[in-house]
Amino acid sequence: MRRIMQRTPSPSPEPGPYGKPLSGWRLRIYGVIFESDTPAGRAFDVALVCLIIASVVVVVLDSMASIHANHRELLTALEWVFTVLFTVEYAARLACVRHPLKYALSFYGIIDLLAVLPTYLAVLVPGLHALIDVRVLRLLRIFRILKLGAYVAEYSALGRALAASRRKILVFLSFVLMVVLVMGTLMYVVEGAENGFTSIPLGIYWAITTMTTVGFGDITPHTSLGRLIASVMMLLGWGTLAVPTGIVTAEFTAQKLQGPDGRTRTCPECLSEGHSTAAHFCRDCGAPLPPWEQGTTGAP
C-alpha cells in the first residue's frame, strides 16, 4: 500500500523587515503605509511624496532673506503643519509594525526621525541657536528629501543595480586609483616644484581633476613631456568615465529581463511577501495563492 506523505508546511520567515501584523487595525494601517500595490497604499505614497517636496520647498524659501522677512509667519506655520503630519506618519509606522525599535533604528526610520526632530529641538532647547547655527536645522530638514527613496520604485531599482555591480565598480575604482597614483607621481618627477607640482599628493590631485575631465586649471604642466602626459590622461579619462555607466546599465537591463520583483504580493496563509505575479503557490508554506490582479497584494 502506497504511503502518501503529506508535507507539513515549514515555519516561514517573518514577512517584512520589521514584522507584519497578523490581523486587526495594525494590519490595515500596515497595508496602507508599507504596501504600495494597493490603491490606498498608492494614494498614501503620492500624498506623502507631495508633502515631502512641499516641505523641502518651504525650507529652501525660508533660507532666502527677502522671502523670510516678508513671509516669516506663513513659513513658520507651514513648517509646523508639515512637522505635525510627519510626526503622525512616524508614530503610525511605529504603531503598525511588530518591532518598532527595529524600524526606528533602520535607515528610513532615522530619516523619518530627522524629518521631525529639528522643529521640536528649536522649541525644547531655548539656547539651541546659541550652540549651533540655524543652518544646521535647515540641513536636517532637507533630509526629508531622502524619504522619497522609499516611495519611488526607480530609487529601489537603482539601489539594486548598484548593489549587484558593487564588485565591478570597486575593481574599476581600484584601477582608477592606480592610474592617478602613477600619473601623479610621474608628473611630480617630470614637472617638479618649479612648475607647481610641489608634492606627490598635489600631482595625484592634478591627475584626478584631469582624468575626470574637470580640469580646474590651477595646476598645469609647462614642459612638452608634461603636456603629452596630460593629453594621454584626458583621452584616458574620456574612455574611463564610460565604464561605470556601462556596468550599471547592464545591471538595469538584467533586472528588467528578470521581470518584476518589487511586488508586495502576500500569501494569505503565512503572510510572506514578494511573490512573483506568475506564482501559483507560496514559496514558503506551499499554500495556493489567489489570482493576482493589478492593484491587489494577494492578502486577505
Q: Would you mind describing this structure in some detail?
A:
- This protein has helices spanning 24-34, 39-62, 65-70, 72-96, 100-104, 107-124, 128-131, 134-142, 153-164, 166-191, 200-211, 224-258.
- It is mainly alpha-helical and 300 residues long.
- Among the domains are: 24-151, Up-down Bundle (Four Helix Bundle (Hemerythrin (Met), subunit A)); 176-244, Helix Hairpins, CATH 1.10.287.
- The protein is flat, with a radius of gyration of 27 Å.
Describe what is shown at a glance:
This protein has helices at 24-34, 39-62, 65-70, 72-96, 100-104, 107-124, 128-131, 134-142, 153-164, 166-191, 200-211, 224-258.
List the helices and strands and how they pair.
Elements: H1 24-34, H2 39-62, H3 65-70, H4 72-96, H5 100-104, H6 107-124, H7 128-131, H8 134-142, H9 153-164, H10 166-191, H11 200-211, H12 224-258
Give the structural class. mainly alpha
- CATH class group of the domain at 24-151: Mainly Alpha
Which fold does the CATH topology of the domain at 24-151 refer to? Four Helix Bundle (Hemerythrin (Met), subunit A)
In this structure, how is the largest beta sheet organized? none
Question: So, CATH architecture of the domain at 24-151?
Answer: Up-down Bundle
